[in-house]
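Working notes for the structural subgroup meeting. M.R. asked for a predicted model of this chain before we commit to crystallization trials. I am recording the input and output together here so anyone reviewing the notebook later can reproduce the run.

Input as submitted:
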Amino acid sequence: MSEGVKIDFLGIRVNLITKDELAKNILELALSGKRKVITYLNAHCVNVAVADAEYGRMLNLSDIVYPDGMGVVWASLLLGKPLLERANVFDFSNKLFVKIAETKVKLYFLGGKEAVVRRAVENLKNEFPPINVLGFHNGYFTDAQSKEIIREINALKPNVLIVGMGIPKQEKWVFKHLDELEVNLCWLVGGMFDNLSGAINIAPRWVGYVGFEWLYRLFQDPWRMCGRYLIGNPFFIYRVLQCKIRNLFFW
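Returned structure, recorded in token form:
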């Protein structure tokens, strides 16, 4: 599998990929990759990449970057380089986890609070009984503890390391230790463990497709999310419009 076609979106290389293609690529890399990295892009990611050049560089080093939010998809249409569709993890994860269970792909979960990641694993095993999660570790550890965690991961030999520590922490940790990790694929999933555990409710699919998933999350956790959405969303729109105007007048 190749990384496929990518477009430049505000300086970030994003894959032209559908949900079904993404699920297929994750499965293929799980079985035959070598230290490959898959992550996602949404409006918040763009804002963080502007402020954190190292994170932006790591996005561009990733093998696959998929469009996680409708804001990015709509903005790509405005900029004349349309992405194919939104590929939020919960748009394709059920089919993917069924295939992972069928093909006996081995997983390791890293990230989240201890109770959250434990419950996420339990719920996944209950919903997809044959699924093989070899182990897990919370995301609250020191740099010194990273070596022990990596030793455990390598000893268990998972095909996929699923990392849910939020951006840019998860990207920085993975790329710092990528050469040490003996896994086929690192799949970076942000807050997926919170959703799998039931700590945060998943927005109905139609809410995501009409572009209001951010509002659904804001109502669930207003104190933590108000800055990201009420300040971050206008900044994202400003950057998109700035790029559009620049393209109109200087191309």
